[in-house]
Design a protein that fits this description.
Elements: H1 2-29, E1 32-37, E2 40-42, E3 46-52, E4 61-65, E5 68-69, E6 71-75, E7 79-83, E8 93-97, E9 100-103, E10 109-111, E11 115-123, E12 127-129, E13 132-135, E14 139-142, E15 147-149, E16 157-160, E17 163-166, E18 185-190, E19 223-226, E20 231-234, E21 238-243, E22 249-258, E23 272-282
């Protein structure tokens, strides 16, 4: 009888051990991964992966974004909060629990950081004026490179004197203007540069026959001309917002029309037709944020 009892006890213990092992194994296999939010962000941004039956110990979980291991900030049975890691590329987001890997149904897009910069002394010469025909080539500027370009296609805005053209729409009939071969457009927003956060709701206009998207002339677009002092000064609160030639977005705050942006320019001593402006450029296709 005692022998039978011992055998039964051993068999029960063995069954319990096997059952516990199976339960542990099932726990690591039965978790699910459902969504990731947001589905696109820059490196360093917090993301949340939702699912079910995640373990509660971060040591049991590895989360990767496009192959790069992310740092887990918090963990619950239904959510993993992590940051997009350095080296991440657009692609699958995977959760690995004790060697069992599962992925989100949609890929994650790693966004490029916005470019927040200042362009200085962009020279926009012109010939003629004061009753003579105005001419001269436009200085073409690319937001992607942050510089003047000679490219016939890879430009967004162009300057000549106080005139600003966009690489989109039609020729205006102005002499020596560049061909429009992109989809650029412009809008003017009244406000503070730092508070223009996106292009949502902005009506973009392209250059057209006899009309630039940014109106020319004093008090019509971005500047005021004082005939008493002969000074060209940016109108405070006029923020230029652009759709680029390849459908990205940017905003511009013109600071000065004079070389080296003097605080108190002298029209008779300060060289003019030198643009200095702040700009923010979003290099991510389909994104409209400007902050």
């Amino acid at each position: 009888m005692k022998t039978t009892l011992k055998i039964f006890t051993l068999l029960f213990a063995l069954f319990a051990f096997v059952s516990c092992s199976d339960d542990d194994e099932d726990t690591s296999k039965n978790f699910t991964v459902t969504t990731i939010s947001p589905e696109s962000a820059t490196v360093g941004t917090e993301i949340t992966v939702t699912g079910t039956d995640f373990p509660t110990e971060t040591s049991q979980v590895e989360l990767t974004v496009g192959g790069a291991i992310a740092t887990i900030i918090s963990l619950s049975s239904t959510q993993i909060v992590a940051t997009v890691p350095q080296g991440a590329v657009s692609g699958a987001v995977s959760v690995n629990v004790d060697g069992n890997e599962k992925m989100t149904s949609t890929d994650f897009t790693v966004l490029s950081d916005l470019i927040n910069a200042k362009a200085e002394n962009i020279f926009a010469p012109q010939t003629g004026g004061q009753g003579q025909p105005i001419g001269g080539p436009f200085a073409k500027f690319s937001f992607e490179t942050g510089a003047v370009t000679d490219s016939d296609t890879e430009w967004d805005i162009a300057f000549r004197g106080t005139t600003i053209a966009v690489n989109g729409g039609a020729l205006t009939g102005t002499s020596e203007e560049p061909e429009r071969n992109g989809n650029a457009a412009a809008g003017i927003v009244d406000g503070i540069f730092t508070e223009v956060l996106s292009t949502e709701g902005i009506s973009f206009i392209q250059d057209a026959d006899a009309a630039f998207a940014i109106p020319t002339g004093s008090d019509n677009g971005w500047y005021n001309y004082n005939f008493m002092t002969n000074l060209v000064t940016p109108i405070p609160g006029k923020i230029l917002v652009f759709r680029t030639h390849d459908d990205k977005v940017a905003k511009v705050e013109i600071l000065s029309y004079y070389q080296d942006a003097p605080a108190n320019p002298d029209a008779f001593a300060s060289p003019s037709r030198y643009y200095t402006f702040n700009y923010v450029y979003n290099p991510n296709e389909g994104k409209i944020s400007l902050q």
